[in-house]
C-alpha cells in the first residue's frame, strides 16, 4: 500500500526558486550522490587505515579491498565523527543536518515527523528543491524508530521502516555475540546492493540525477558470512586487536558489494559526475562480546588485551573516540585521488555539503547544525567547515 507523501513548505520554497540564477539548472549537469552507511564499523577496521600517521589506524586482520580502492580514488578523513555512539540518532542526524542534541530522543517523532512539522529540511527534499528531476532511494537499514518511513521524508523508493531485525537471521538474543550463520547473502548486503544498482541503472537510462543511500546491516551482529569467507579467516593468522573470523568474513562480504557499486558507476559512465560517500554510523564494540556497561569507561590499560578500536579508547555506546570516530571517505569530481584531510567533520555536515556540491548558492535554514566541507574536498583536504558553532556537540 502506498504511503501518503508530505510536501515540506521549505521544499516548496526551494522549488519556487528553481528557475532562478542561483540554481542555474540549465547550465550545469546535476551530480549524482551515493551514500554508503555501514553499521558498527570501527575507525581502525579497514585494511588501508584512516590516518597514515598511525600504523594502528589500519586493521591487523580485516581485509577491505573495495573500501581501500575507494580511499585511493578519493579522500580519507582522519577526524570524522558519527553524530552519536549508537545508530538511530546518527541516522536521524544525517538526514536532517542537525545534532542529536537538537533532534531530541522521545521528542523526535513529534518535532520531526512531517505530519507535525513539515518545515524540516531533509537530504532528499533538499536535492529535489534544487532540481525537481532528482530521484531518491534508500535501501537497507532505516531505523529512525519514530514511525517515519523513507517516503515520508522525500525518498521515492525504499525497503520501508526497517531495523536491525530485518538484517538478522537469529531468533534469540542470548547468543548473538557468539553465534555464526552461513548464508549466500550475509546481512543482506548483496540484495541491498542489487536493488541499489537496479535503481541507478533506471535513473541513468531515464536521464535523472539521483541520490542513493545504501544503509548496510553489516558488520553489526548477528554475525553472518559466506562459508568461503569464514574459512579464509579461520586459516589466517589472527591479529592482536582483530581476530574474529566470522566478523572479518562479514566485513569482507559487505566490502565486496561496495566494489560492485564502484564497478557499476564506472560501467554506466557516470563516475565523472558522481560523488560517493562512505561512513560508519558509530564505532565498533570494544570487545566481542562487549564488556558490561560499568566497564565500558575503564582505561584501556585495565584490560588484558587491546580494544578493537585501538588506538582509540572504548567503543560503541560511549562518547570516547572509539565510540564516535568513524571511517569516512569521499570520492567524486574535483577530489584529488589518494588525498587525506585531518579537518574535523561530522555526519550532520553531509546535508550542507551535498547542497553546495549540487549547486545550491542560497542560505540554508538557521536550525541546521552542520556546515559544508565542500571546499575541503576541492582543496586537497585543507580548509575548515563553517558551522554556526566552531565546535562539535555530542549527546
From TrEMBL:
<keyword id="KW-0378">Hydrolase</keyword>
<keyword id="KW-0106">Calcium</keyword>
<feature type="domain" description="Sulfatase N-terminal">
    <location>
        <begin position="31"/>
        <end position="360"/>
    </location>
</feature>
<dbReference type="InterPro" id="IPR017850">
    <property type="entry name" value="Alkaline_phosphatase_core_sf"/>
</dbReference>
<keyword id="KW-0732">Signal</keyword>
<dbReference type="InterPro" id="IPR050738">
    <property type="entry name" value="Sulfatase"/>
</dbReference>
<comment type="similarity">
    <text>Belongs to the sulfatase family.</text>
</comment>
<feature type="signal peptide">
    <location>
        <begin position="1"/>
        <end position="24"/>
    </location>
</feature>
<dbReference type="Pfam" id="PF00884">
    <property type="entry name" value="Sulfatase"/>
</dbReference>
<dbReference type="InterPro" id="IPR000917">
    <property type="entry name" value="Sulfatase_N"/>
</dbReference>
<keyword id="KW-0479">Metal-binding</keyword>
<protein>
    <submittedName>
        <fullName>Sulfatase-like hydrolase/transferase</fullName>
    </submittedName>
</protein>
